[in-house]
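Operator note (shift B, R.M.): manual run for Dihydrolipoyl dehydrogenase requested after the automated queue skipped it. Running by hand, logging everything below so the morning shift can see what happened. Input copied straight from the record, untouched. If output looks odd, do not overwrite the archive copy; leave it for review.
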Amino acid sequence: MTQKFDVVVIGAGPGGYVAAIKAAQLGLKTACIEKYQDKEGKIALGGTCLNVGCIPSKALLDSSWKYYEAKDHFAIHGIEAKGVTMDVPAMIGRKANIVKNLTGGVAGLFKANGVTLLEGHGKLLAGKQVEVTGSDGKTQIVEAENVILASGSKPIDIPPAPVDQDVIVDSTGALEFQSVPKKLGVIGAGVIGLELGSVWARLGAEVTVLEALDKFLPAADEQIAKEALKTFTKQGLKILLGARVTGSDVKKKQVTVNYTDAEGEQKVVFDKLIVAVGRRPVTTDLLASDSGVDMDERGFIFVDDQCATSVPGVYAIGDVVRGAMLAHKASEEGIMVAERIAGHKAQMNYDLIPSVIYTHPEIAWVGKTEQQLKGEGVAVNVGTFPFAASGRAMAANDTGGFVKVIADATTDRVLGVHVIGPSAAELVQQGAIGMEFGTSAEDLGMMVFSHPTLSEALHEAALAVNGHAIHIANRKKR
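Run finished. Output pasted below as returned.
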């Protein structure tokens, strides 16, 4: 007998599992389909983010930063730490335990909320029927009033550097190194490339990042990107812009990479090569030809502002639809869709989705960049405040970077908050909360911020927008 559900979610990543839990909480009979298995052959929930993305990479970033600090920066605090070493397999093991705890936690949440987990590959058929194919090849059909497609994304492969997960790896393979490579190449100076490059550079690898674009971090505010490039170069990352990889050759556990730059054809040899040129939606065999759901030529599913597809009752969220490939964006889309299925008029504010790069210093922003606003002809006032003038940052020996607040010159409404420095993601989130309520720079300036905190840098940057900063000299108005 065919099982029937109010909602069937295909995919249990941060979009899918959140959508399933929310739908169940709203009283809808809900099932979630997942096929991803861990190394032990057990179903692992949480998608790329929990298993091989956001969480494990942060675990390695934190471990490598602690090692780097202990080795090179404890002396300033009066702490003597001689002969500090890194046990790479232990670091990787810690990361694996964190992943296991979190994926198991999602399974527990499914049980607590009454979500039915269906193990296997989900495929949408005509008439909102979903075919589930188990790892044993057996199939079953489930019927749904509503279907949410949340199948996520995977790393993009490039022909000049085919991944073998040994010498040439993708972001997943880069989380599994059992020793520090002497020479490490990274193709792509985006979020993933910079984060993974940072991990292994801190542990002693000589890291070269090859970026095809001539501009560094084009999505970030130019002032922030410039500071980031300067900082990463100082940390030892060799970032080559305008370097287009044309081929690679693996021999004797090394890879020779050919690339072209402004000076012509170049060659460089690495012990390991990470390919981090972006991600693409996983929509292969997700939709039957008669499902009625439309996709574009790159495999993204067409949706409206509320994530509805071309078929009534079928929705798509997360990395398979337009917009930034971010876990928090996927989760909020999942909440919005579950609410709409339950009859509520939920909306999502796509203008205020924070972006974060978890290097050290962190880089984060929300809203628009100064160059975007100038391109739109919007007159702005800008306030910045350096962490070098923050007592809390000095106490923590972490004074690199600054906070930048951009406000409309006419209304004083805050249009962007950009940070490079300690706890950038947390400070930007404070900005996002204010912006959600239409804050002006003056509003932020009038609030009481506790002292001494890093968030005072946001306070001072907001004051600086109108020339009222207290702890730095204000720019003279022309």
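Quick read of the result: The domain at 3-155+280-350 is CATH 3.50.50.60 (FAD/NAD(P)-binding domain). The mean pLDDT is 97.
Leaving this for review. - R.M.
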